[in-house]
Amino acid sequence: MPAYNAAKTIKKTYQDIPQGVVDKVIVVDDDSADDTVKIAKKLKLKVFQHPQNRGYGGNQKTCYTLALSEGADIIVMIHPDYQYDSSLTEELVRPIKNNRFDIMLGSRIRTREEALAGGMPAYKYFFNRFLTILENIVLGQNLSEYHTGFRAFSAKILKDIPFHKYSNDFVFDQQILIGAIAKGARIGETPVPVRYFPEASSINLKRSITYGLLILRDLTLYALTGGNYLR
Question: What pTM does this model have?
Fold first, then answer.
């Protein structure tokens, strides 16, 4: 769990994870200003604290590094803001465990009606659709969403991509997928409910535009280099 100011939601996220599906939960706190660390420790979770804020991508880098160092075979990343339904963790793990996919994504975009009814702002929905269509064309995939914060990776694919070289910002989510695709990773997905509410983290319009522009840059570089710049 890459955590930042998740004190109001981390307990609910953790408690919804089905028992027996995961062996260990690691929380990496990115210098939160609330009681995220205190609550995570009360839940007896393994907690690692960044001494200063490293950004969303930087937080994930620590999460994956710690999980690999613990000997994990499959690593699930979920935002502890309760926007994603962690009770579906097994749905992401099973296809990787059965060697059908290397990466599984929890997609919030089954239908437009469900996404908007779940509270996803209209501009985010259409922004998501535009970028996903473009990414599918450039990357040769047929995914319904690239922008989810609920993902599972095989340890093998994480060890095979230089994710420490990627951005410390939000575009890390896309770079790690592009880098994996460049390595030939098999990516699957399963639908998950959309849950937008005040306590759930979400980047604002300005950050969303910056995020989108960085994705366009990376897609251009992928098209020009075949993904070599992220391998």
Answer: 0.94
